Known about the structure:
Layout: E1 14-20, H1 26-36, E2 44-50, E3 57-62, H2 65-68, H3 71-76, E4 81-87, E5 102-105, E6 109-118, H4 121-130, H5 140-149, H6 156-163, E7 169-176, E8 181-185, E9 194-198, E10 201-205, H7 209-213, E11 217-221, E12 226-231, E13 234-239, E14 248-249, H8 250-256, E15 262-263, E16 266-267, H9 268-282, E17 290-293, H10 299-309, E18 317-319, H11 331-335, E19 343-345, H12 347-350, E20 354-359, H13 366-377, E21 382-387, H14 415-422, E22 426-429, H15 432-439, E23 446-447, H16 449-452, H17 465-469
Helix pairs in contact: 4-5, 5-6, 9-10, 9-15
Amino acid sequence: MSTLDGREGPRDECGVFGIYGPGHDVSRLAYFALYALQHRGQESAGIAAADVGGHIMTLRDLGLVNQVFDEQKLRALGGDMAVGHVRYSTTGSNGWDNAQPVHRSDRREVALGHNGNLINAVELHTELRERGLSFRSTSDSEIIAALLASHEAERIEDAAAEVVPRLKGAFSTVLMTKDNVVAFRDPAGLRPLVLGRIGERYCVASESCALDIIGAELVRDVAPGEMVSIGADGLQTRQLVTGAREAFCIFEYIYFARPDSRMGGDVLQAARGRMGEILAREAPAPNADLVIPVPDSGAPAARGYARASGLPQDDGLIKNRYVGRTFIQPGQELRKHGLRLKFNPLPEIVGGRSIVVVDDSIVRGNTTRQIVEMLRDAGAREVHMRISAPPIKHPCHYGVDMSTREEMIAHGRDVDEIARELNCDSLAYLSLEGVYEAVRGDRERHCDACFSGRYPLAGTDDANGKYALELPLVRA
Ligand code: AMP
């Protein structure tokens, strides 16, 4: 498969944002917050806004945040509160219908954005259809919206208190009614969600980088199983589920989240730097001349590797920053240049030298294979790949596109075989222990199933396979 229609930065997950902010230009704040979360999903973007007590207006479309919204559209989305979403599909197809926020008005009006993946979506969908509800999308997010919008409890918080324990899987969810903004996180805390404060008001976002851009301060993480409700009475919180095994996604630390986001109290740039330092300790390359990163994802770890090994560091690959997921296909003539449209090697830097190349992860191996070839063509004498994560061998059932097990290069191959396959002089991965040392985290409170096959939620062991859990939902 050509890398041009393959991975171009994060292919997956979603980003969410919500603010209750009478007196603020809430849709503009939502727009910029989503702009900062763009790396979490580039397929569609949307914002819903309303005046307190008014009707919710939703605008969503396929495309990047700055393609979906313009000045005029933002002005039309005025109000006291807003929720927003950026998406790359994990469940359901890539269509306009699946763009979020999802808007429903069953018993109450609700606009909702969700990051994660429900593993009991099919059961809940069947149950709701039997109750006579119809669906416009095939996304599991609409199931959560339908459960909440159709619930008979008068207060949305009471509805959520009953609905949340019934949801299985990963869900960092933000929604608004005509009165307030409510957010909750699944009991295992698989996906991130933070609470921020802007003046006297509160907001929630997938990552703290979204708070920085709008001048909000990070208050804390929303706790696993916790609901926060922000409205006229300020902030109210309720622990909806207690005692679950925590399982925050370790891959957020390694790759997904932006390096300037803070998770578990640490800025990720620092954690990724430590991954590189530990990698240098675990897998030195004493005879190499130079460390280079695969930009941008490998940059913090490459710096750490260079720091710890004492080797010099430089940029041997220059990345075109403007290559996104949606760009014109190169056609036959250019296709053979593959990744060169994204990365250009510098022969003056790498020529005649033994290079350590640091990247954050290998999934299918397409990126690495082409980078090795490109560096050799540019005259590199030796190419030693160093990866700041363990081999990815198992699919993610909790909202990350890791492709299928069969497509993963580490599936059924040991490290030497992978090195041969990728044509590098040596290859080494950071150990799982090394990852936990770098994030200063406890394995029993994280999910590392993509590396270990140890799935923290009951009923999601590897034997089920990705598709068993994501049967396409039938449209009503
Ligand atoms: P691959 O070519 O499939 O081996 O992709 C590996 C590259 O994609 C690495 O440079 C990673 O930074 C990046 N990557 C890792 N995981 C993902 C993911 N789930 N979605 C998109 N890109 C990813």
